[in-house]
Design goal:
This protein is mainly beta. Helix content is 11%, strand content 46%. Strand 8 and strand 9 form a beta hairpin.
Length: 352
């Protein structure tokens, strides 16, 4: 079964989706590495339940989606021409984490497992004989994003450096990089969230070097703030974000939420662009800093309006729309669960 509906998301559909957003989702990314006519996405449902996914493209910040349904233990192929008008970056989203195996292929070339890595600091490891690579960089920040690349040999000496400016949201920069000697790895460091693909030639066969986030990106968390982790009360929560407080009354109220979880207060807050030096996805694989942060807490409320419900990942995914609508959040299922030190916030590592 492959049922597909193309939608352009407006306010009403955003309210509907945010109301469903308590369940953690997977969003996988793909830079513009292939023409639509040559692109095929292969999706395998690994579960014994029906599943749904969306192919997502962005036009001047507007998100357009096409959904596809899969029966239990089934597989479908999605042609690039079904959802891409031209060679451009895209993402693929599923509601249930780890339920689908998703790969992309350009013509008959290498099949690429799509990844959810969004860290602004990753490494691509290489065999010792590589002297040139093909790089695709995808900007996941709403404004420009400067990216610095370093190629290092097997003893850790820098043998090449390159700087790339990604000007707009979802821009891809693709290039071949020829190095003066063999490299063992390429480090990619951006100012903000990004996604990268790197390919190398191995005896005439193109191979992928997956991006690896070796350590969480360090954030310049101020020691003048008091930080709190906000997440669901699930046994194994999958999404979380951080707020920073400096008002004594609000700090006391936040601490009371931890001491007395039955109070069940919803954080009603305003957000702005940028991680603020403290906001990151603490429960994600790469602990990636978000592209947004809470700049004020308006209330710890018993009730909140449906139009500001959602989740931290959904806010990231639809950030331009959220900011254009006033930048207000009140995630219904999310509560303060832990006070954090500035070193925990900065390092991305939670103490027991």
């Amino acid at each position: 079964m492959d049922l597909s509906i193309k939608t352009t998301l407006g306010i009403s559909s955003l309210i509907f989706l945010t109301h469903l957003s308590a369940q953690a989702t997977d969003v996988l990314y793909a830079p513009a590495f292939c023409e639509p006519e040559a692109l095929t996405i292969m999706v395998t449902n690994k579960t014994s339940e029906p599943q749904r996914l969306w192919t997502q493209v962005r036009f001047d910040g507007e998100l357009q989606e096409l959904h596809h349904d899969l029966d239990a233990k089934s597989q479908i192929k999605i042609r690039g021409t079904r959802f891409l008008p031209s060679k451009m970056a895209f993402s693929v989203k599923s509601w249930t984490k780890n339920s689908l195996q998703i790969t992309a292929r350009c013509e008959e070339n290498l099949s690429i497992p799509l990844s959810d890595l969004t860290s602004s600091q990753v490494s691509h490891w290489l065999p010792s004989s590589v002297k040139s690579v093909k790089v695709h960089l995808l900007n996941l920040f709403l404004k420009s994003n400067t990216v610095k690349l370093k190629a290092l040999n097997k003893v850790g000496t820098v043998i090449g450096e390159k700087e790339v400016l990604l000007k707009n949201y979802y821009d891809t920069e693709s290039f071949k990089w020829t190095l003066p000697e063999s490299a063992s790895r390429v480090e990619v460091v951006g100012q903000e969230r990004l996604h990268s693909l790197l390919f190398y030639d191995s005896f005439g066969v193109e191979k992928l070097s997956p991006a690896v986030a070796m350590v969480p990106v360090r954030l310049p968390a101020s020691t003048d703030k008091t930080y709190f982790l906000v997440s669901t009360k699930d046994a194994r929560p999958e999404e979380a974000f951080v707020i920073a407080l400096d008002d004594a009354t609000q700090i006391a109220t936040a601490r009371e939420q931890i001491r007395n979880p039955s109070l069940e207060k919803i954080i009603v807050a305003g957000i702005e662009l940028g991680n603020g030096g403290f906001n990151r996805a603490f429960f994600s694989r790469d602990k990636s800093p978000y592209s947004w942060s809470v700049n004020r807490v308006d209330a710890f409320a018993d009730f909140a309006h449906i139009d500001c419900d959602g989740s931290p990942d959904l806010t990231e995914e639809r950030l331009m729309m959220k900011l254009n609508e006033g930048g207000r959040i009140c995630f219904w299922r999310y509560r303060i669960i832990k006070e954090l030190s500035s070193s925990e916030v900065s390092s991305g590592t939670l103490k027991p």
